[in-house]
Amino acid sequence: MPVLDPDRLFPAEARTRDIARTLFAAIEGAPILSPHGHCDPAWFAGNAAFPDPARLFVVPDHYIFRMLVSQGVPLTALGVPRVDGGETERDGRAIWRLFAGHYHLFRGTPTRLWVDHALAEVFGVSAALGPDTADAIFDEVADRLAQPEFRPRALFDRFGIEVLATTDDALSDLAHHEAIRASGWGGRVIPTYRPDAVIDPEYEGFAGNVAALGRLTGCDTASWEGYLEAHRRRRAAFRALGATATDHGHASARTENLAPDAAARLFRTCLQGEAGTGEADAFRGQMLTEMARMSVEDGMTMQIHAGSRRNHSGPVMAMHGRDKGFDIPQRTDYVAALKPLLDAVGMEPELRIVLFTLDESVYSRELAPLAGVYPALRLGPPWWFFDSPEGMMRFRRLTGETAGIYNTAGFNDDTRAFCSIPARHDVARRVDCAWLAGLVADGRIGMDEAREMAAELTTGLVRRAYRL
Amino acid sequence: MPVLDPDRLFPAEARTRDIARTLFAAIEGAPILSPHGHCDPAWFAGNAAFPDPARLFVVPDHYIFRMLVSQGVPLTALGVPRVDGGETERDGRAIWRLFAGHYHLFRGTPTRLWVDHALAEVFGVSAALGPDTADAIFDEVADRLAQPEFRPRALFDRFGIEVLATTDDALSDLAHHEAIRASGWGGRVIPTYRPDAVIDPEYEGFAGNVAALGRLTGCDTASWEGYLEAHRRRRAAFRALGATATDHGHASARTENLAPDAAARLFRTCLQGEAGTGEADAFRGQMLTEMARMSVEDGMTMQIHAGSRRNHSGPVMAMHGRDKGFDIPQRTDYVAALKPLLDAVGMEPELRIVLFTLDESVYSRELAPLAGVYPALRLGPPWWFFDSPEGMMRFRRLTGETAGIYNTAGFNDDTRAFCSIPARHDVARRVDCAWLAGLVADGRIGMDEAREMAAELTTGLVRRAYRL
Amino acid sequence: MPVLDPDRLFPAEARTRDIARTLFAAIEGAPILSPHGHCDPAWFAGNAAFPDPARLFVVPDHYIFRMLVSQGVPLTALGVPRVDGGETERDGRAIWRLFAGHYHLFRGTPTRLWVDHALAEVFGVSAALGPDTADAIFDEVADRLAQPEFRPRALFDRFGIEVLATTDDALSDLAHHEAIRASGWGGRVIPTYRPDAVIDPEYEGFAGNVAALGRLTGCDTASWEGYLEAHRRRRAAFRALGATATDHGHASARTENLAPDAAARLFRTCLQGEAGTGEADAFRGQMLTEMARMSVEDGMTMQIHAGSRRNHSGPVMAMHGRDKGFDIPQRTDYVAALKPLLDAVGMEPELRIVLFTLDESVYSRELAPLAGVYPALRLGPPWWFFDSPEGMMRFRRLTGETAGIYNTAGFNDDTRAFCSIPARHDVARRVDCAWLAGLVADGRIGMDEAREMAAELTTGLVRRAYRL
């Protein structure tokens, strides 16, 4: 058996599988639209070769290192840097062997699908990864990485990426994005406005960040009105480099809609470092509504990624810092939380707010009913732990009957693992076709409709949700 | 392909589909029992022709207009009345064209199944609805509606409805029900006692409603005992016109079981308009237990529809009023909430309390374990957003292993869309047969048992849960 | 059709079913490892014949009597003892007839699978249970129970049980376990340390229990240090008789990690009976962390069964006491609740904490993400109401993509119904093979991998999670 089954993720039943195959054949080659992710724009600005296989696949990928950690492999043995600068593994081959030796852990997980696909389709590896093939595959991939056709821009073109959005701090100088534009290379890489550092009063260095925002924009960010105007200018600067969206990652979906003077007072309290937990949370909530209002003005799509409890392990946070695989979902309410924002702007027909969740229990209870009636809302694809075959199928089954597909926003790969982008879109397209095939097979829709829907899920809905 | 696939909603796998077909053939023609819904008794009292297709299908159906609104169609363009009496679309054909032009939004939703079925089976329309066929289908349906065999009573008979329960305010004079009885027509249309307006202290005009209840019954409803007695008399008046059930729609499932003097004090506080949010909620909870006690006395089945946050959008509520598609489910607890009521009457072997939820996470965690042990409890069918093929299948899979089917109550169409009643029962029967076919196919039950269970799910359980 | 379909619980689709059959054939005969359950060690110490069929199958089995109660059968008619010693049914045949007469209630439930399997495979009964066969089957089973090959030890050997863990109070003298060891019989029956009675300040007689713990161990359990040392000694005594695990059944998963002096003060408050609800809960939480620390020291696997609201019905508790089928799951948080414990010991690579839940909404949101990163955590199998075909399939689908299978702990039968043990393991093995067959059929894993995974799920993971 080849490593990649050509019918992978299609229904087992023959008639339904045939329908899925037919639907997939028509969209398999569609361009990749990647409106949300975490690739580094520096890759495309500089177009330097990627580092060795371990540093490309393992060290930066929390999907991978969290699974190895769960079975007792220390983060230090995987080359994950320490806050104190202490020793961690530096030998890429040693890290790769650890990964290959534990590759069975990923059986049944999406990581397995992504890595197999990247090795086979991007790097032309024909063997299955495992302890016995670790060295040979390391050498094979390392060899490829040294070749010009495996540099970032060449892969971008080979992958058929029509547009790739990065995620950029509000204070970013966007130099890499400017460099890409100036380079004459035709790849469309665009920034996304992610202002957590200047919106969240509990973010490290918040007051300093707000002051820096003032310097960047020439606004008096010590005043509420100046602070809002600074956001407007930064959003405009991002748009000038192609941005069509903003992104907001809060622990809850809480929103507020305070009167201007109350908001101004709250802002002052936060800026002076005097906000308690409740006030900080209220301010984040107020800013979601402010960002939504600015989106009504400037047409930027607003993304809300709510519900992650960041850095769950105290000891790991102390030793290795943020984003080391210890972010854990938590129960999240949207119905009460979003009401202030929705009362303010939810009926705006041109506004686009894309909602994401890590709490699947809200798909049918909260998100589908909300997106199925408020014109401003669209449902983002299954996020993070749920960006997986079963997760996507549950999402469709739990939201499709109430919100339909036309209130959803297509797929996001949401990754910093550049070589997995084709794999992730491949999985999403296959699962969508498998779902649609089921609807055709049991007579809920016709084949002509399924074809249209497959195209919409792959490109149409993405273009419209993100104005691409 | 015909618009309606004769095998729709059956499993794709051939052997399982054959089992489903066999099971369905035996119950497809069973009479329709509709123990809970929102049809207007005036239709059957007056037997006037239904209005034009748009006013029959679109304007009153929140499933339909909420989906169009979600894609930016204003409620006013759909003819939904305004609170201020302002202009809204009056041309039925224009509304119908809007609906037909957006019909693709319903792909994969139950609304699509219901509308297709009603057009094809009730009105004999052979074309698929869409922008190109909008006018022709409008004319075809309008033409039929003018014919005597499409009047309410004729359709009632044609649909094979054995009994249809409406939902009636406690203060209703029930004149239409009396008129139906007096008319000599044989259709069994019965009322349901729905006392929210005289039980919920936060209902508009609560105190006046309670006073009106006193006038209607000749009881002193200013006293707690008189108020309870008034309920008893109204329930008796409903029963005299055939009612077998009551219905209660609260935001939570909270119940209370206060000592009589504490309950009397709380009632007084509510009546004087001095109840805070907590006291109003406690009073609603107390009244659920009182209603349950009266059900032990008079044998009426009690329905609890909990967990809807009504009128989520402030602006829509202000412009169009209640019930305009902006009711959103919220997380709902049953385990702690129902304990006071269940401690009071949960072990009564003849009491029937039918529980409904909009929070699917409670099916397996709370509702099935409760209904699987308390003799008074039965599980109502999937409600509202979950009255759908996927929703029904999840309900069976999530409750069937703990509560079995004999602690469930069969199907409710719960609709005000009269022409969709056959479609809704058709969907429910097909999904039940699909689920049973799966149990037969993998050896969990025998074919003889599945036949018995299909009949129970279609009629037997309904008759017993509602004493019909 | 025979009562037991040889392909039961396998996928209906032919190709996938063939894969499931092949996988199952290789593990069907594997030894039974039962690392958690509620069998009585006295059975194997004394090896007396089991009582009549009703007392073996019905009276002690809350799965069975709760379903009959839900349909109005009184507990007294089923022979369930009363707290006041009052009359309950004593005629085993009468109880059995009631059970057989209501056996249709179990259609589609796991109880049906277990009872059918036990009657057919353990007792050789060929007829289907029902009102007509009740007496004949009662006689047939009763006849078998009188034979020596149906005594506990003979059945233990026949069932192929390699190890069976019982659950034993911390204060137990373990005399039956000593007797089993002294008997020369080769069956491995081992105790499990379950210290609820000396850990939960709200347990009846807590202070007395703690004093008894002191007498048993020769420690001064009036002091915090002495109390902890007493636990260490009791754990050692359990280990000396083969124990490899502890078990903790709390209403929530709350943990605490107080400074020693704060913990000592809290202990004193609890011992003096002065702890409020919050303090009692905090103490239980502190003791989970203490138990985890002792597990790091002594290598015992720690099990946490959280989320059951015990004895929901006041009247049933008053009449019949604990454990009468009225324990109901409740919403349970793990992410915040476990943080103190995980910050203390979650990164210990040799520690094994097995988590169980009655709240399925946490599988994908909380448990899989936690177990997929913390080396100390493993996921226990679906518990109680979810120990069922659908429940197991949901568990795999909801956890497998994030935690994989290698962070799970294999199957527990968790039963006091000894004759159902082979049935329960049979169901679990079939469902695991059905799940794996689906992954093979749609190309997610290879057949060779599925074989390895099936063996791991059946025995490998159990041995490692419980150090058996």
UniProtKB/TrEMBL annotation, chains A, B, C:
GO terms for biological process: D-galacturonate catabolic process; D-glucuronate catabolic process. SUPFAM superfamilies: Metallo-dependent hydrolases. Keywords: Isomerase. It catalyses: D-glucuronate = D-fructuronate. The keyword Isomerase applies. GO terms for molecular function: glucuronate isomerase activity. The keyword Isomerase applies. Pathway: Carbohydrate metabolism; pentose and glucuronate interconversion. Its EC number is 5.3.1.12. Belongs to the metallo-dependent hydrolases superfamily. Uronate isomerase family. This is Uronate isomerase.
